[in-house]
Amino acid sequence: MPKPFGWRLDWGYILESMNKIPGESPKPETRNPTQTPNPNDQSRRIGVSSFGFHSDFWFRVSGFILASIVCLPAISSAGIFLPLQGYYRTGRYMPVRVDPSTTRLAADGILPTIIESRSDSIVPVLVVGSPGSLDADLPLRSLADDERLVAFGGDTRSLSQSLFPQEKIVAIAVNPSDPFPGPAAAWEALDAIILDSQTMARLDDAHRSVFLAAGTILAVAGDGVPDRRWPWKRRNSLWVLQYQPVGPVSEVLDRGVFSPTYAWAPGSSAALRRQIFVAGALLGIAVVGIAMWRSKAAVGAIVFLAVIASGATIWWRDHLGIVDQAGGDIIVVSDSLLQRDSWLYERGRGGGVRRIDWSGSTHPVLASIAQLQSTQMCIVFNATGNPAFEYHAVPGERVSFVRRDVRPGIPGPVIFSNASPMRELARDIYLTTGWRIAGEQTAAEGRWDTVVIEEITPTSGR
């Protein structure tokens, strides 16, 4: 139900207007372009200057007193702004700017987002369906197949058509001093980013990795190559960094990603089994030692030791966690970039709330809408400004998460083996025409061996 229309009081703006010297020209307000409210956003702020009280101090005071008495309700979109003007792509995050008063974002078609941070923040909101709006005053727009969402800085807007000559450009201006605030993944709905060399230099390797993992084109206007670390290529008047990800890109619901878990029988790790063996051996030695003690207190000591051991076992079982974990990596080797997809699978051992901190380009992948609802999966933007996934673990039910990283590099040596369960995922989801499995790499304890995929070339094909 639409919330009543009202005004939002901005006390900082009121006090600022009271401190102005009569007759002084007001300073122009500077606004970060990423903070520009949506044109449909009806939020307004009321300050003394809004009523023209600059010329007389007493009018300012009376205006302040009046504002202290009258406080109208805020509209539903107050404190929520859409830097991408409400445009989105299903299966990807979109950035939403919230003020400290916003604690939750929820609507049909998005993953609920809980905001624990009490500061002005950009939060990533994952679109999982076709939402119409965040509320009545903030409509959302799905990008059409022939539309390209392009962020530009400075005077680079006119160059966007050279990247997409046949498509309609939806241009978004960004602030060159801080073009993409908040988690980089929040901006992955962008199809391209065009900046000058100085602004592009502000994007570190982690930001570039996230954008390339989403298939976003990075472009720089200028004559000189932006840097030597990344494989920039010249296209007309732009230096372009582009990568087409292999494997799932925007899938939030896909049963096929669970193929590595079909033969998975969760059990204790080798390290945990060693700990159990050592604990049992020590307990046995202690019991034998007490039994050899020629005293009437020996029986009581053995009973006491048994009680302590039972209590320790119960405590240990309670602290094993509510889920079993497994997973592995898939590495995709191209001519100049290395894509690493790190998969994590969790199987509920008991009921309870599970929270997983994440960074970079990370997405949950579930089997169905029903599972999405039963697990109550949501995003939590915690008090430190970092995102996490939170869900209700269901005994016997599996969920998955994938983190994608794209950087310059070369793979390590591979072995020819068919042992890794990740091979099933590679065959089902990743392998398309022109790609093949090159081999496997030994992974760390607790992880399945890594599967390496390479592009078939005249020298590597078979």
Written overview of the protein:
This protein has helices at residues 11-18, 57-69, 197-200, 205-213, 270-291, 297-318, 369-375, 422-430; strands spanning 8-9, 45-46, 80-81, 87-88, 93-98, 104-105, 113-115, 121-126, 133-135, 138-139, 141-142, 147-152, 168-173, 192-196, 217-221, 233-235, 238-241, 323-333, 337-348, 352-357, 361-365, 378-381, 387-393, 398-408, 435-441, 448-455. It has 462 residues and is an alpha/beta fold. It folds into four domains: 8-69, no CATH class; 80-241, no CATH class; 270-318; 323-455, no CATH class. A six-stranded mixed beta sheet has the order 13-12-14-15-17-16. The protein has a six-stranded mixed beta sheet with strand order 21-24-19-18-26-25. A five-stranded mixed beta sheet has the order 6-7-22-23-20, with no helix packed on it. A hairpin with a 2-residue loop joins strand 16 (233-235) and strand 17. Helix 1 runs antiparallel to helix 2.
Please describe the structure with a list of short key phrases separated by commas or semicolons.
single chain; 462 residues; alpha/beta; 6-stranded mixed sheet; 8 helices; disordered N terminus
SSE topology sketch:
Layout: E1 8-9, H1 11-18, E2 45-46, H2 57-69, E3 80-81, E4 87-88, E5 93-98, E6 104-105, E7 113-115, E8 121-126, E9 133-135, E10 138-139, E11 141-142, E12 147-152, E13 168-173, E14 192-196, H3 197-200, H4 205-213, E15 217-221, E16 233-235, E17 238-241, H5 270-291, H6 297-318, E18 323-333, E19 337-348, E20 352-357, E21 361-365, H7 369-375, E22 378-381, E23 387-393, E24 398-408, H8 422-430, E25 435-441, E26 448-455
Parallel strand pairs: 1-2, 4-11, 7-22, 12-13, 12-14, 14-15, 18-26
Antiparallel strand pairs: 3-5, 5-8, 6-7, 9-10, 15-17, 16-17, 18-19, 19-24, 20-23, 21-24, 22-23, 25-26
